[in-house]
Amino acid sequence: MNKICLVIICLLFSGRAMTQTNTFLPQEPPVTSGAINIVTSSLEEADGNTYFAEAVKNEKRGDLNDALTLFGKAAFEYNSSKLFVRYGEALLRLGNVHFLMNHYGEAEQVILNVALKNYSRIGSKTGQMESYYQLGRIYFAANKLTQSLWFYTQQGILAKQVNNNNSYIESVLGIAQVKIRKKEYTLALRDINRAELLAKSSNNNQFKNKIKEVRALIPSKIGAKKS
Question: Taking CA 46 as the corner, what is the angle to CA 43 and CA 51, rounded to the nearest 5 degrees?
Fold first, then answer.
């Protein structure tokens, strides 16, 4: 866990644009020729790509602790080379691994305080939308329903803005799950039916099982009465 904490601390400091000395991050290099800067950036990008690929392999194998460390290293390299889109991708994967390990506090810190700020800074609505989705899941798993509902709602708003139907359906189903846990079954059923209609209208079968799973969470008597 010490390595994991170190990685999170590094990422948190890197996202704050601090001016004082930081022992976790390299200082701004002196002004040199453009050729040297390009070579350095390329090396950092290559290292980031290597760490990211290895992290994905470890995650698939179930070696989540190693995946955490490697995604953290990838994020550090991408940030150093100012590849902020790739930086965000590594942060999202890092947060997701924390989520899989039930490290909800750590996942929240990575996504809310680093990934979301990064995507907001570079103006990526898609990145913000994906961050909102992860935060919705994290808060739901932690049983923080008010926060979960808010972030799923924000995801849906951005999904409409960028015309991402899949993400919008995800947000609707996330909201439905929150309402089910709050025992607002009638409202939840309306959301489920809306998600199902959206999926059918776009001939999208990827949510078929998910919709069934969420619908099954509603007590059968209520579902039969309202369906």
Answer: 125
Distances, alpha carbon 92 to alpha carbons 56, 108, 180, 203, in Å: 12, 11, 27, 29
CA distance 45 to 51: 10
Q: CB neighbours of 88 closer than 8 A, spacing ≥ 6?
A: 115, 118, 119, 122, 124, 127
- Taking the C-alpha atoms of residue 159 and residue 156, their distance in angstroms, rounded to an integer, is 5
Q: Cα 80–83–87 angle (5° rounding)? A: 80
Q: Who's near 53: CB < 8 A, 6+ residues apart?
A: none
Q: How confident is the model at residue 61 (pLDDT cuts 50, 70, 90)?
A: very high
Q: What is the 3-state secondary structure (H, E, C) of 133-192?
A: HHHHHHHHHCCCHHHHHHHHHHHHHHHHHCCCHHHHHHHHHHHHHHHHHCCCHHHHHHHH
Amino acid at 167: S
DSSP assignment, residue 22? -
Of 41-45, 46-50, 154-158, 190-194, which gets the smallest average pLDDT?
Answer: 41-45
> CA separation (Å) from 172 to 82, 117, 142?
34, 24, 19
Unique residue bearing structure tokens 């089910």: 180
The string of pLDDT tens digits covering residues 116-132 is 999 999 999 999 999 99
